[in-house]
Amino acid sequence: MNPRFRMAGLALATVLAAALGGAHAQDAKPLPAFKGSWPGAPKPQEWTPAVVSMPPASAVPASPQRGGRGPQMHHVLVLGGTHGWHHDSIPSGMAAVFNWGRATHLWESELRTEFSLVNGGGGKPMNSGFQPQGLHDFDAIVVVSATGDWGLDASQKAALLDYVRGGGGLVVMHGGLDGNHGWKEYIDMIGGEFVAHPFNTSTWPLFPFPLLNENPNTPMTSNLPHQFIKQDEIYVVRNFSREDTDVLLSIDRDAFDMRPSQIWLPPDHDVPVAWIKNYGKGRVFASSIGHASEAFDDPDVARMYTQAIEWAMHLVGPEPRPHKR
Predict the structure, then answer these.
(1) Lowest-pLDDT choice from 122-126, 187-191, 233-237, 262-266
(2) Spacing of C-alpha 130 from chain mean position
């Protein structure tokens, strides 16, 4: 090995060892020694700066450090905690959001199955990688089938509403429509509330639904035909109005006999499957698609949700245009 590179490598190793050792010493609390005679590193206030020789300019460059938040990357908070029905597709959905972000080089994902980051904090500069403190460290939130009552306190609820109302993005997948039933403002923000899935049974949990593409002029639906079939578990929703939502996909009532399930349906038999809406300055996308793990392997579904996250972050258009069918 070239002696110059060998010396540079030793110097670089010294720098990295000092940096890593210092990081661990800061994080660890001093404990009494139980073996040997060395009590451990000095406490942080007793440290003295180490004199380290940096490698020469001609040395092989180290991997670039990633301090702070890169301006080219967005950050997405993925919430998959559930206090109701547990969908076994949650890991697949959360992993899919992570992978879509890496594949597009548009966002990095923070995956959580609890809701501690749903608070009004964050938004401050970061110098040691991405260490989120609250909602204002994120550009969008993706809810992956987080059913049931999330257990948020009053300040957390206000923080979530304020975040989206102030311009944050929100994407709700499948069981996220079955969350927080006692929280009217959440239901109003996402645009609808799960009632039932009367077309799917325990013996046939996934059903091939004829769907109608009502608005092909969005990035989420531009690649889909006007009429097509998708196999999933489609929800019937209540507390929903086309007056404040732009329905993208719905069950094609002309191609599907709903009469056997009409007791579970609204009077007009309107079953929206995906929609967008504004909530204050924020953008909200919601869809009941995503019951099973294999849904996230479907190229159409992957494209729809990938584009939905981009749309929610205001990276692509257009604005919602509520319409009647």
Answers:
(1) 262-266
(2) 15
